[in-house]
Write a structure and sequence with these properties.
228 residues, Rhopdopsin 7-helix transmembrane proteins, globular
Length: 228
């Protein structure tokens, strides 16, 4: 659990620094969206690493809160960057989608800190909160798909869907403890569902990053081709 997210935190931090140092203008909407996504993922994986290293797993404390705020930030940034960089839909739709997922993220953060974070009820609160946030975060992609059916260019929708499937699978495995008993019997490893969720979270983030950077490259090329 610790190593997978520590390495991911270092990778996203380095990628964000490299991107910030090479991009022409960080004030452009596309560049800002990409950098926000990279920083949000670095923050998410760093918070998870700190929680697993330092936190007392028996009580709710600041580390657990930061861990789950980090997850919400990563979900928000994925949806926000998708809305910001997908081409061919009205600016009002784009801005509305970003406002929707931002509002949902803020509400979910407040809900996390007003509910119980630990124990069986706390686990249910956390899982439910992330399910709600993930569902809202998928709304821009669903709307974009609806607007671009019938063979039109769907941008990097496939990358967003791939990330959603991978991360959703990890979340489902964790929520149901699907692998715990089986893997403990086979190889004697406890908490296999939690570990699988961590690995899939990293995999989903990397999959989406690849599509996001490709979309940014196309977006940047189009911007440079527009007359001033």
């Amino acid at each position: 659990n610790t190593w997978s997210h520590l390495l991911a935190a270092l990778w996203f931090t380095a990628y964000a620094a490299r991107f910030a140092s090479t991009v022409t203008s960080l004030s452009s909407p596309g560049a800002a969206a990409v950098l926000t996504y990279l920083v949000a993922n670095a923050f998410c994986f760093a918070c998870s690493t700190l929680y697993h290293i330092f936190a007392d797993h028996e009580t709710a404390d600041v580390w657990l809160g930061l861990d789950h705020v980090g997850i919400l930030c990563a979900i928000w940034a994925s949806s926000m960057s998708f809305a910001a960089l997908c081409r061919g839909w009205p600016s009002s739709e784009r801005q509305g989608s970003i406002l929707l997922v931002t509002a949902a993220a803020l509400v979910c953060c407040m809900f996390l800190f007003t509910g119980w974070l630990c124990g069986s009820s706390g686990r249910s609160v956390r899982v439910s909160t992330h399910v709600v946030m993930g569902s809202v975060a998928a709304v821009p992609a669903l709307r974009y798909w609806h607007l671009h059916t019938a063979g039109h260019d769907t941008g990097f929708l496939a990358d967003f869907v791939a990330m959603t499937i991978v991360n959703g699978s990890g979340g489902a495995i964790y929520a149901t403890n699907l692998l715990d008993k089986t893997m403990e019997k086979i190889i004697g490893v406890s908490g296999a569902s939690h570990q699988a969720m961590h690995v899939l979270a990293v995999g989903g983030a990397l999959l989406y990053t690849r599509g996001l950077m490709r979309a940014y490259s196309q977006h940047d090329t189009l911007d440079k081709g527009r007359p001033i």
